[in-house]
Write a structure and sequence with these properties.
Largest sheet: none
Order of helices and strands: HHHH
Number of strands: 0
Radius of gyration: 20 Å
Number of helices: 4
Helix content: over 70%
Strand content: under 5%
Number of domains: 2
Distance between the termini: 43 Å
Length: 85
């Protein structure tokens, strides 16, 4: 992904919000700001068509991976593995 440098002037409240998000996400201040912008855009404008398509494809891959999987048997197996801890 290509990047371009942009300078933002943040007041104290916005800078602290960005710092809190960066700590929560475990990333840089710049990355937290990018994530917040994308989430706000999606909330206001809706998720872009390409992103919706990617999400649908991810769900289809998951459905294919879990086809013929018995969820109750899987839960029993995981619980049995956890008993030793």
């Amino acid at each position: 992904m290509a990047s371009a440098r942009t300078t933002l002037v943040l007041d104290d409240k916005a800078r602290e919000a960005a710092r809190q998000l960066a700590r929560r996400y475990g990333c840089s201040l710049s990355e937290a700001t990018r994530r917040a912008l994308v989430r706000q855009r999606d909330a206001e404008l809706g998720v872009p068509r390409q992103r919706r398509h990617e999400r649908v494809q991810a769900l289809r891959r998951l459905f294919a991976l879990f086809e013929d999987n018995d969820p109750r048997a899987e839960i029993r197996r995981l619980k049995a593995e956890d008993e030793g801890f």
